[in-house]
Specification:
Four Helix Bundle (Hemerythrin (Met), subunit A), Nonspecific Lipid-transfer Protein, Chain A, 54% helix, alpha+beta, globular
Length: 277
């Protein structure tokens, strides 16, 4: 597929994921927006506010790199923070927060399409192409949507959009090792995942010694640190692949706390808000 077609596909899935979460929260009353989610101290309003803030940051990166550089400086200097931005947004009236998130989503989609081919966008991690930026936004929207779904006890549909998220999880393997102070393994891993429709998605050498197998949903839940690996059916072959499932992290920032296994404690430990900006 041509680059523009790939971007269009990712943006379509991002739009669908945002629309699903929008439909879940739009009908909530004020009390619903204040419900706690699995992230300690974060309500549903905090989750949506975080997505709104990071969508706006991505929009700034795509349209005004100098302004984004200032935002990055403030973050590095601890003048701004993920929690602070989420708290500020959560303090808004739900209707105002929802309108702000909707505007940011629409603005970002339009901006990414308009980015000249070959441009790398600045970010809180390494610079990214528009397609990679859209994929990161899809990953984060899906992950925080999972938190909201768990808070409300509603099903979170698994769609083919998981393929983009799974691919991002595969591509961030070396980052996950590095951010944990470990040297990334030299050899590529084989990853074989069962898609929601029963087909198989695979990456890496077919004869790789280090392998991960399971469902795409489980893999994405682990790599976004919404599930402990032991609460999934993922199977690792090889010591390095096994270690990866302990530290997999598809989002930027410092190592996340993840969750402890529910099987040993009776309940899953809440996941701290991820470090994706």
């Amino acid at each position: 597929m041509a680059g523009a077609d790939v971007l269009s596909g990712v943006l379509s899935d991002l739009g669908a994921e945002g629309a699903w979460l929008d439909s879940v929260v739009a009908g909530l009353g004020a009390a619903g927006w204040r419900l706690p989610t699995p992230a300690p101290g974060w309500t549903i309003a905090h989750q949506v506010a975080h997505l709104s803030s990071t969508d706006e940051a991505a929009l700034t990166a795509a349209t005004d790199p100098a302004a984004f550089a200032e935002r990055l400086r403030r973050m590095i200097a601890f003048e701004d923070s993920v929690d602070g931005a989420a708290a500020a947004g959560a303090a808004l009236a739900p209707a105002d927060l929802l309108a702000r998130w909707r505007a940011g989503r629409a603005g970002l989609a339009a901006a990414l399409v308009a980015v000249p081919a070959g441009t790398r966008l600045p970010w809180f991690g390494p610079p990214m192409s528009p397609t990679s930026m859209a994929t990161a936004r899809l990953m984060e929207t899906w992950a925080h949507g999972q938190d909201v779904a768990e808070a409300l006890g509603v099903p979170h549909p698994a769609t083919d959009g998981l393929r983009h998220i799974a691919y991002l999880c595969v591509r961030t393997r070396d980052f996950a090792f590095s951010v944990h102070g470990r040297t990334p393994p030299p050899d590529a891993f084989g990853v074989e995942l069962t898609a929601p429709d029963g087909s198989v998605w695979s990456w890496g050498p077919a004869d790789a010694a280090q392998r991960v197998r399971g469902t795409a949903l489980d893999f994405c839940l682990v790599a976004t640190q919404r599930r402990h690996r032991s609460d999934t059916g993922l199977v690792a072959t090889g010591a390095d692949a096994d270690s990866w499932l302990d530290i997999a992290q598809a989002f930027a920032g410092p190592p996340g706390a993840g969750r402890e296994p529910s099987r040993s404690t009776g309940t899953a430990r809440p996941a701290a808000p991820d470090g994706a900006m």
